[in-house]
Amino acid sequence: MITLSDVYIIGAGETKFGELWDKSLRNLAVEAGLKAIENAGIYSKDIDIIYGANGLAGVINKQENIGALIADFSGLSEEGIPAIRIEASTASGAAAVHEAYLAIKSGEYNVAVVGGVEKMTDIHGHEINEIMSSILDREWESFYGATPASMAALIARKYMKDFNIEKEALSMISVNDHENASRNPDAQYRNKISLKQAMESVMVADPLTLMDCSPISDGAAAIVLASEDFVKRNKKDGVKILASAIAEDYLDVGSRKSIYTFNSTKKAARLAFDRAGIKSDDVSFAEIHDSFSIYGLLALEDLGFADKGNAKDLVYDEIKLSGRIPLNPSGGLKAKGDPYGAVGVGQFVEAYLQLMEKAGDRQVKSPRYGLLHNMAGTGATSVVHILGD
Amino acid sequence: MITLSDVYIIGAGETKFGELWDKSLRNLAVEAGLKAIENAGIYSKDIDIIYGANGLAGVINKQENIGALIADFSGLSEEGIPAIRIEASTASGAAAVHEAYLAIKSGEYNVAVVGGVEKMTDIHGHEINEIMSSILDREWESFYGATPASMAALIARKYMKDFNIEKEALSMISVNDHENASRNPDAQYRNKISLKQAMESVMVADPLTLMDCSPISDGAAAIVLASEDFVKRNKKDGVKILASAIAEDYLDVGSRKSIYTFNSTKKAARLAFDRAGIKSDDVSFAEIHDSFSIYGLLALEDLGFADKGNAKDLVYDEIKLSGRIPLNPSGGLKAKGDPYGAVGVGQFVEAYLQLMEKAGDRQVKSPRYGLLHNMAGTGATSVVHILGD
């Protein structure tokens, strides 16, 4: 009788995030994949299945069949290793990890490689805005001109009005991201920014300024997941996935009961905490999906670190690397970068480094549990993972 | 201690396949999904996870985030049910079933809905050809002008030369598809065609004529999968998934050892037969991926029903509904239709009807095992399922 296996992360790797004009979609995917495989110390014959996370290659690169592409270019096609692409918009990365987690738990596979990749900087100007809007509801939102930034601005306005929040609270999320990114060699922007710089940067969609918005990025990240059996047999060291949960909300923001409470995040967090058997107070650090600074505040609340309207109290000290709940030690989406399909997997790379205590200058002190929050677009899908040892 | 569950199909439904100009992507997905849910006799609160299969919405409909879209429009967002899109090009459908199968086997979910959808006829002429070519290797094949049809023609030429095969053998695959589709109310083309008509139809890519090529189609299909526990608790009738296997080959045909042996199909078939514990002789009917008639011959061989070069001996009598190995009782990709993301799920709808002995005029006599073969593009990915009771 086969029983359900625990699932471990035994290796991780990523490319630098940024404007990588000399690397193609497949270059990036393979670079990250090979780093993770090497880091895990496994061979290609050990790999049972590959999950590729990608949000936009169909639109940007005119390339579908991404799973096969990655397997091919990694030199793994000869072995016939199955490769499947998971698309859940900007949450594709963590959704792919969820699928790999299920694949190993099912007993059908022992070792899964999850690679997330996005190549976004080949297209510029209004065109990338139009393309990014494909993650919104095409018929009810983007058709009328809504973009991810304008939706975030709308949400921010209403939130700031109802809870009497100053713009400063939003900006502090970005200040913290840049502070941490300055210590992350893979980050797209390693410059620190002052609160004044963040507040006074150019307007994008009122009240959001440039420093409230994540950049357009290229990049890839990969991790290797393995069953308990494989870990024991091969004496591997790793980080355990204690919970993997996904939940959904309406795709169009207008259908939701509240535009600043992301029910998908709340539900996924509740499921994850239940499954892991821990509380938000137990979390040592969190990587959250702050594609816009407002989403950083909302995530802190919807994940249970603050009551609704109170995240502002955490943004000065508590979220620092030395604070009660270190937020985005990697630099987050604002400063590490936001290559859609790679973001969620990149969070795992950071959490793996943190929990293995290999995060160098940005190491959180003796972390026990890491929480990862990856979100699609304006909150239609949220994926929450809790990792530990 | 939780143990691994068997997985059952407890409901199935699909839209008509065809040129459905009055229905949008979401209309189609929801129509099929609701039919399957109603057929299964379950409620929305029973559904734990949704898998959406789609190949091209990013390119055609400028809509990514397909999982969330389907959940939303099905009225399931309120419950927060997770929804994930699986993309494996034209094998997206069966790949999504594989993921749902793993999800249930993992013990994390009890009931999964898999919906495949594609909306392809809104775009015409050379543009759809360009878009369909996104399933090939963009940098090594489609960039140079290769299309799915021209690649299939290349493969057919070499196969016909090496094994001295007449065009007639290819055409008989299409004749059989149309014969069966004439009995399927959901099929795009219900007209029977004669061998002469198939042979003399207009040339598309020499030696492939129009009747060797699957059409451009809209359509959606959905099935409901459930755990053994759910089936017993709710006294459901269903069809058991005995094996679910995926394998990969090089994305670009030029890298393969043989261009008319699809290693992905061979490997997935071997895995599936092993896992199900049956042989090809035991199969009562097969639904195979004949987007071009040549692929019908190759599938018969790579799946183990004939030796390489000998599929021609099966195409006159053996593949008929009354023959030894009834092929595509649904009408196959040529005549039932070829809406990319829906095709693989549609094969399950057919197999479910056949194995429940509810396939009406096209019922195969007392079937025991059904084999389903769904393939991506020119064979980069193959998914093989074996169903039984």
UniProtKB/TrEMBL annotation, chains A, B:
KW Transmembrane (keyword) present: no
Entry's Gene Ontology molecular function annotations: acyltransferase activity, transferring groups other than amino-acyl groups
Domain called Thiolase N-terminal: residue spans: 7-229
Domain Thiolase C-terminal as annotated: residue spans: 254-388
Keywords: Isoprene biosynthesis, Transferase
Pfam families: Thiolase_C_1, Thiolase_N
This protein's record includes keyword Amino-acid biosynthesis: no
Gene Ontology biological-process annotations: isoprenoid biosynthetic process
Cross-referenced InterPro entries: Thiolase (IPR002155), Thiolase-like (IPR016039), Thiolase_C_2 (IPR055140), Thiolase_N (IPR020616)
NCBIfam families: PRK06064.1
Name of protein: Acetyl-CoA C-acetyltransferase
Organism encoding this protein: Picrophilus torridus (strain ATCC 700027 / DSM 9790 / JCM 10055 / NBRC 100828 / KAW 2/3)
